[in-house]
Protein 1
Amino acid sequence: MTSEPVAPARAATPRIETTGDAAAVAACCSAVYGSPLAELLVGPSLHPGGLESTRMLLAAARLPCGARLLDAGCGLGTSARLAAAEFGLRVEAVDASAAIVARAVARDTAGEVVWSRADLLALPAADGTFDGVLSECVLSTTARGHALAELRRVLRDGGTLALSDVVTSGAAPLAIADRLLGAALCIGDAWLPGEIEDQLAEAGFTIERRWDRSETVVELVDRIESRVRLALAVARGSSLDLAGLAELAGLGSLASGGPDAARHLADDVRAAVRRGEIGYVAVIARAR
Ligand SMILES: C[S@@+](CC[C@H](N)C(=O)[O-])C[C@H]1O[C@@H](n2cnc3c(N)ncnc32)[C@H](O)[C@@H]1O
């Protein structure tokens, strides 16, 4: 795959807001995950369930050692490195954000993965290049019909799509879509009921397996909440200007809201998961 030069890492300045417009949601997502502060809160795996979810998904994909895998929307590259190191796959990884790709490259000390800055909507790869595609918590942040058609194009016939993403039962989660956690959890444009089945079928995939991982959203919210509390406690007990730091990282709303705002937001998400309004699913699909 041809690659664009990777620019040095630089803190992005995210606008923490989402709209129904797919481009704005994608830009917001890249900006949020481009911030080192976001990694501090979420961890190096930028999806619910972390590496355990990735291992489960790759094991279910059953790609043979040496198979070519594309990590589509790789974030910091944690999953791509795992796929190469633990599953023996030949991995290429792309992300729309040059700053994020630069950070992924810096972590790949083993040089096991080929990294590129590329948009899923126009992948710089020939038809049928890959045996498998991994896409975790990405399609909910971009124009997914178009992206799925591209993923199908670069997969060989019979290739495997291993997908995990945020689902919603309807409109309720939109109440938190314009707030930090909503953006960080890809809730702003989560998949609606039936949409995964319809869009995958339309793009030329047959779903082989689908399972629920909603409990990982609660785990992630718990972790983010406790890290926000810790950061705020440290800032209070020291001369650390957390609000200033957060502002610099473009995440001002995080610090300005204080512990109560963080708790209310986390409570909102946990309750939505309990009511079945927000969930997380894993899917294995075959390219027809
Ligand atoms: C929630 S993060 C998930 C990252 C990674 N898959 C993981 O699980 O650690 C979503 C990532 O998708 C990337 N992204 C969003 N839209 C994209 C697009 N159209 N093309 C390529 N990358 C995209 C963002 O820049 C961000 O790094």
Protein 2
Amino acid sequence: MATEEKRLETILFDMHLQSPFILGSGPLCHDANSLIAAHKNGAGAVVTKTLRANPAINPIPHICSVSKDKTLINAEKWSELPYQTWVDTEIPKACESGVIVIASIGHTPEEVQLIAPLVLQAGAKALELVSYDERTMLDMVCKARKLTDRPILAKLSPNWNAPETLALQLETKGVSGFTAMDSVGPVLRIDIHTRRPLVEGENGRGWLSGPAIKPIILHHIAELAFQTNLPIIGLGGIETAEDVIEMTMAGAQAIGLCSSLMTHGLDYLPLLIRRTLELLDLLGYATLAEIQGVFLSEIQKERPSYHFQFTQEKCIGCNLCNLACPYGAQYTGKSGFSLKKNLCHLCGLCGSVCPTKALSFLPTGAFL
Ligand SMILES: Cc1cc2nc3c(=O)[nH]c(=O)nc-3n(C[C@H](O)[C@H](O)[C@H](O)COP(=O)(O)O)c2cc1C
């Protein structure tokens, strides 16, 4: 078995990362010390908070947890520190501590022209360009490519019409890879006691991140990986080792984390690294690299048939599967599993709500 370091080793462009985990742009990247803390906890690289011509002033409040699974809504803007401070002190300090810094720049070509040469000179190893508007992204990449040979990541947004079509256009303009993706929105939640929005963004609107957005992001990662061979940093809703494996199978080469480290704390990262290695063991894989994009070939195979699997010892009699059946087709409990085949539509919901995996609905040939 390869050493633990080897198993998670990631080479992104020409950068040798200590792990595939990349701290995504957000409040945990607000200055040099926060970048250094992420590096010490095992991040392979860190993206700065987005730098713009003028520092941000954020509305109050601007981040809120909106569900038990810690999905977030935020109306946070770009860096509150001026870009010149990043250039003069923050990026050099982080680089001196061994951090691989990816500088995030938004949101216009003019700001790329102004900030990109300075952050690269200060030690940033790559650029990540971010825009609210897909039309400006092409110009931003063109501008950046004229300025540097270093890797340029385009951060794609799930809120754009056709991010994959844009990705292909960006490829012709010299983009090196993609960060997929930004938070989802605009979204709204209202506090029914105060009648105010939960975050005080423009018109009370904010942007969704964390577990709720993972299926949206996975869809785009798989689509992107299908259409381009450029590296993809999968970012959006990743919290558990299972999420890491899922994102990698969809085609991500590196794993971005933002909300989950905000809600669990940075010292959750070493735990996530350990759990990812344990899960790889359990699933019988040596490295993340060997499962990158395996979904893409799997989905092209003929659709399998499915079968029920029931393990009596695992059943806790919670009744959730019975409640979930829209057709009254199955009964599961202390007396076992019985199915009225003439009523069952093979929808699969019963197996998916079982908390102990006593009941599962699996592709033929697969067993838990
Ligand atoms: C509070 C907060 C602030 C963020 N600030 C930025 C930012 O300045 N620049 C940027 O490109 N993305 C920013 N993001 C988006 C994240 O980098 C990431 O794309 C998104 O949250 C999805 O990942 P997650 O589900 O792991 O959080 C921010 C996200 C949050 C939650």
Protein 3
Amino acid sequence: MLRDSGKDWEVVELDLDPPKSGELLVRWVASGLCHSDEHLRHGDIVPRFPIVGGHEGAGIVEEVGPGATGWEVGDHVVASFLPACGHCRWCAQGRSNICDLGATILEGCMTDGSFRFHENGDDIGAMCMLGTFSQYGVISEHSAVKVDKEIDLTKACLVGCGVATGWGTAVYSAPTEVGDTIVIFGIGGIGINAVQGASHAGATNVIAVDPLANKREMAEQMGATHAVASAEEAMELSQQLTNGVGADKALVTVDVVTPEVVENAVNVIRKGGRVVLTALADPAKATVQVSGSVLTLFEKEIVGRLFGGGNPHLEIPKLLGLYQAGRLKLDELITKTYTLDELNTGYNDLIEGKNVRGVLIHEH
Ligand SMILES: NC(=O)c1ccc[n+]([C@@H]2O[C@H](COP(=O)([O-])OP(=O)(O)OC[C@H]3O[C@@H](n4cnc5c(N)ncnc54)[C@H](O)[C@@H]3O)[C@@H](O)[C@H]2O)c1
Ligand SMILES: [Zn+2]
Ligand SMILES: [Zn+2]
């Protein structure tokens, strides 16, 4: 868990309540190391502290709380970092990624305001109401998606955040249309899956932008038609490939959003094009600083999206089905695996640009 911004992840013993109504006790098997947890450590985004990290997890149900219907001990689960109740205004509209239950993902408490982790009687939160860096967690059934037991959970965990978010950014939020030219800024765990999504959805040109050579190489292996190191190169290339029209859509999946990357994304798209902001930064910072008149005169759009704009309970099984059919790559996304004691090393590797995705494999 993390006690404060700027501190390292600490391995501690915590007390865990049994599952209450509509909840499940899950033994986490694996958890992806997404940059969103790093935002909490770095201080870009400040949650309620202390908090158990991890929101990209897969595990096995060990106990079913009262009223959690349709669940059995032994069920395999991929966690959705956004809970979906199924009947609020947003869920009813098919936008369950913005379900009202998401309100407490940074408080780390359950919907009724109570906590499941405790240390010497003090309440400890859980990132996205999950806390998948812990070996065990009690979560709402609204955060749990039952998956096929045949699927390796050490790979399946990635679909809980990075894969679904990147894929959805390209496929639903851009959306990529057949023949499009798509520019993707930032090829980490999210951006690489935007590459897979854009390629799958029929883009003619998928231009990956990342200053790191290992990321560009990976992008080319995962479906990018071009990979460049800078926004200037992306600009030149998109102009050249589209006869001076510009890219159809630009996706921002960098680690920390800056006004520069947003401006570059707005400049690289054609009139009537769209920029999708999936990456995050300090919410107090004004990271969109562009000419409003350019947006008006060229009818350009900038939109923000959570979970790639998809519905977690629909997307997670769908993406795993694509994986089982050999149409979506998961194994290739994992650069390195870590044990719990190596969590800080895993995040240092992320910051140093070594990993497309690191995965924590729990020992029990
Ligand atoms: N909206 C959502 O639902 C959602 C979900 C998950 C993660 N996120 C956010 O998405 C972002 C990406 O997460 P990640 O885990 O993939 O991060 P990551 O650290 O794995 O990858 C970021 C990549 O961006 C590259 N980069 C940095 N500046 C760049 C620039 N100016 N141009 C091009 N590339 C640049 C880095 O070299 C790195 O390869 C984070 O901000 C994370 O919090 C959002
Ligand atoms: Zn994430
Ligand atoms: Zn809802």
Protein 4
Amino acid sequence: MAVADETRKRLWARSGNRCAVCRQELVRADLEEVPGALVGQEAHIIARSPGGPRYEPLAPKVRDGYANLILLCANDHTEVDAQPTRYTVEHLRAIKHRHEQWVAARLDGGDSVSEDGTLATLILSGDDLWPLLAGALGWQIGMPEALSDEDADLIDESMQLFTDWCDISSDVEAQGFRSVRDAKRSLTGQLNQMAAAGFVVLGGRREAALGAGVTGPVVVLEVVRPEGLEALRVSVPGGAAAPGDMR
Ligand SMILES: [Zn+2]
């Protein structure tokens, strides 16, 4: 079974004719020698064939379904498939989700998504998170709607831990390398718990107004649950894979 035309149209439309990773245009008018050159590729998140990147056995309908496809430029397609441990299923779904939100926000003329790519980074470990929160003076946090009590508690607990480390970050850094390392481990442990519950954290840092004409570094975090991830998992024969199995 091939990817259905309707699925392909949806993918191109919702991607806004841009690569989900680098956001370059995928039908380019600027390549003189090839008018209207098509540089976009419909990539499978979970590979079609055994031995392919991120392969898991999937029903053909799911494998070629919308949730398992991501639109990329040729360069990023090559890179994504060459580095399946960096570009895990979760990472790619987060990139796609974020990109589609970015496209939708631009088409709506809204400014809910920062254009500077503030949130483009996937936060997987304390090594990713510490540089964002160390010395930050404010927080801007986004999270999914309609959370179960259990999930809401987990996210609250995570944000509390992150802001606690932020508050003492200058002391921790003054204490030296080992203290920073311990802090990063604590953050990694919490991020792993969130990943196990199906959450992906995207983050960034930017200068923002803090009141009274003062600006300072603000941590921007968004917790997302990539659309369709659970449905995809459930369809895998033999049960759901833990996020850790993918890395
Ligand atoms: Zn690209």
